[in-house]
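User: quick one, sequence for these tokens?
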């Protein structure tokens, strides 16, 4: 009963903070664009990480992500006229924390319910949220349980590159984060 109350409060926060109503046509358009952009971003990142993994294992993949993931996302931001983020309570990159009340409310919603995505409005900005899951066994080589899924040398590299890392301890198909894609409604 308490959980339902917290969910209701979270959704009220989202509804109150959404200052403009989204038409159904706009909602569907942004939902489709958000899904396309998140799928493209995921695909590009996974292809590059997979290539780095083949070339030098998880340690090489971590080094690749540390040096290149932001640049890849920035280029996709420019190409798609949006702002792509990944947010989580257990972030690897300190910049990927839950920043807003809406981020937190969406986190609670997606953690509780197995829904696919949603669009909300913050003023003139339309925001697409979609859950990220540890969908493949390869994800666990860097996001699984240290000592069993994650090899010792990978754990050491994680500590070196991401001293404040929180993004481990996941199992296959766990809810790991959210795509947060912002579109200006001009």
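Assistant:
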């Amino acid at each position: 009963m308490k959980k339902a109350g917290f969910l209701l409060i979270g959704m009220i926060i989202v509804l109150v903070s959404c200052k403009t109503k989204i038409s159904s046509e706009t909602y569907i358009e942004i939902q489709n664009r958000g899904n396309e952009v998140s799928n493209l971003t995921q695909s590009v990142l996974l292809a590059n990480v997979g290539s780095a993994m083949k070339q030098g294992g998880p340690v090489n993949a971590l080094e690749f992500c540390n040096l290149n993931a932001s640049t890849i996302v920035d280029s996709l931001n420019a190409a798609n006229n949006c702002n792509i983020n990944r947010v989580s309570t257990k972030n690897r990159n300190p910049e990927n924390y839950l920043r807003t009340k809406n981020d937190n409310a969406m986190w609670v919603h997606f953690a509780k319910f197995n829904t696919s995505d949603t669009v909300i409005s913050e003023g003139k900005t339309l925001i697409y949220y979609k859950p990220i899951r540890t969908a493949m066994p390869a994800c666990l080589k860097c996001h699984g349980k240290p000592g069993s899924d994650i090899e010792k040398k990978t754990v050491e590299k994680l500590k070196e590159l991401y001293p404040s890392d929180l993004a481990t301890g996941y199992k296959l198909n766990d809810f790991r984060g959210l795509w947060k894609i912002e579109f200006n409604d001009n």
